[in-house]
Amino acid sequence: MELNDKQYYRYSRHILLDEIGEKGQLKLKVSKVLVVGAGGLGCPALMYLAAAGIGEIGIVDFDVVDESNLQRQILFGESVIGRNKAEAAAMRLADLNSDVNFKTHPFKLDTSNAITLLKNYDIIVDGTDNFATRYLINDACLLTDKPLVHGSIFKFQGQVSVFNYKNGPTYRCLFPDPPGANTVPSCSDIGVLGVLPGIIGSLMANEVLKIILDIGEIMTGEVMLYNALQNTNVKLKLVRNEEVIDRAPKSIAEFEKIDYDFFCGTINNPLEIGIETFVDSLKNGANIIDVREFGELPEINDFEFTQIPMSQIEIEYDRIAKEKEYVVVCQYGIRSLQVVEYLKNNYGYENLLSLKGGLVEYYKQTESKT
Amino acid sequence: MLSVNVKYFGMVGEVTKKDNEKLNFNESVSVEELKNVILKKHPKLKKLDFQIALNLTIVDKDKKINNNDEIALLPPFAGG
Questions:
Q1: Chain A within 8 Å of B7 (Cβ-Cβ)?
Q2: Which residues of B touch A42 (CB under 8 A)?
Q3: Residue B71, Cβ neighbours under 10 Å: how many?
Q4: Which residue of A has its CA nearest to B10?
Q5: B43 shares contact with chain A (CB less than 8 Å)
Q6: CA–CA separation, A117 vs A104, rounded Å?
Q7: What is the arithmetic mean of pLDDT over B22-50?
Q8: What pLDDT is recorded for position A175?
């Protein structure tokens, strides 16, 4: 295979580099990269991978574009709000580079589809936003022997590493056990500086290119921590831990039986109520407390509720009676669970439940049925 | 007398409400002992999971800490 004249010109700034050249550009052309999550990290990573001329790029995302994504998810514009992210991303990227073969996977990565999907690619990029999927991807990469480029973000800070590269450490070697449920807030709960995933996602794309081109130092055996407020980078070394890796599933059959949501403690919390039960309790006139701050979306327009913002809970909690049953809601069900736990532990409220998945999940499920 | 600088990342920094702090000890301590001192100082950290790095390397709990060592507490980040 070789580059045609148009491609030779298009990628000339790569080809001029001794470290890449025509040979390196051809390596990119025959590579296949799978990006899981077309969100804050996935968008910038996808843009640079597509621009670089990767031969085939797979995009996995089950979610749809929301207006609050546009602050950082730079592949999307107002015209694609409500569209599936994998498809909206591929549409924008096809315009960026028609050389690339884009494969969209508009569904949730799970244990039944992960192995088949990962097998088709050379490198896996993790831009997801939850621990269940992060551990799932890690274990699937171990089973299919694929390098995993990891990125994760928190407010103004990011982590980048390459796992499972040439027998190097894995995500489990860095964090052997998943964190307790609801102890690590996500961007939607605590906020994130828009440009932060841009920086971290670009670093991830950089690792992908270096792995394919076999140049420079790959970020294996270390995790880089970036702080956007302080402009600092810290690299922490880590080693492969066979004892920890031994806890990962050893066969595809074993992998397919694991419930990663359960493993990460994200289900079966007795203080939570699922959407279906919530819908039933609404019919029975349940008392609802919205703990979001005033003006947050989605707006509640189909049932009665009392609003006590989380920031006011310390002052206004006595508006909540102890002899009635309440369901506490927020956008995604993280803050509401914190409030329920807080009032239970500090003021003895035993009559509160938190809506799991929050109003976003509630409206997603109820609107899809109408 | 032993003095170490401890850096707090992510949620750990949120809970301690600082990026780093200096801790002093009268005698030599292990990573585990240091962790217990930090948890006593910041009890809310008990709920969190984090790894501990000593001089930029993630280490086992029984490693000994020396004067002027750099410690970092690293929790996983969820966001993407």
A1: yes
A2: 80
A3: 23
A4: A154
A5: no
A6: 11
A7: 94
A8: 96
Of the given ranges (A269-283, A328-342, B44-58), which has the lowest mean pLDDT?
A269-283
Confidence of residue A368 (pLDDT cuts 50, 70, 90): low
Within an 8 Å CB–CB cutoff, is residue B19 touching chain A? yes
Q: What is the homologous superfamily of the domain A272-368 according to CATH? A: Rhodanese-like domain (3.40.250.10)
Place of tokens 């450490």: A169
CA distance A359 to A352: 16
Measured between alpha carbons, how far is B73 from A327 in angstroms, rounded to an integer?
Answer: 36
pLDDT band, very low/low/confident/very high, at A284 (cuts 50, 70, 90): confident
Q: What is the DSSP string of A95-133?
A: HH-TTSEEEEE-S---TTTHHHHHHT-SEEEE--SSHHH
Q: Do A179 and B51 touch (CB under 8 A)?
A: no
Q: How far apart (Å, rounded) are the C-alpha atoms in residues A115 and B60?
A: 33
Q: What's the ipTM?
A: 0.95
Mean pLDDT of chain A: 94
Find tokens 């966001």 and name the residue: B79
The answer, for B74 touching chain A at a CB cutoff of 8 Å, is: yes
Which of helix, strand or coil describes residue A29?
helix
- In angstroms, what is the C-alpha Rg of chain A? 22
- Token pair for B24: 């002093």
Look up A173 and say whether it is catalytic. Answer: no
Contact B77 A192 (CB under 8 A): no
Chain A environment of B60 (Cβ under 8 Å): none
Q: In the CATH scheme, what architecture does the domain A31-263 have?
A: 3-Layer(aba) Sandwich (3.40)
User: Which residues of chain B lie closer than 8 angstroms to A158, CB-CB?
Assistant: 77
pLDDT, one tens digit per residue, over A89-139 is: 999 999 999 999 999 999 999 999 999 999 999 999 999 999 999 999 999
Mean pLDDT of the region B49-73: 94
- The Cα A138–Cα B28 span in angstroms is 38
At A34 the pLDDT is 98
- Cβ-proximal residues to B36 (8 Å cutoff; 6+ apart), any chain: none
Residue A266 has pLDDT above 90, yes or no: no
Amino acid (1-letter code) at residue A94: A
Where exactly are the structural domains of chain A? 31-263, 272-368
Rounded distance between C-alpha atoms, residue B21 and residue B37, angstroms: 13
CA distance A267 to A272: 9
Establish whether A187 is a catalytic residue: yes
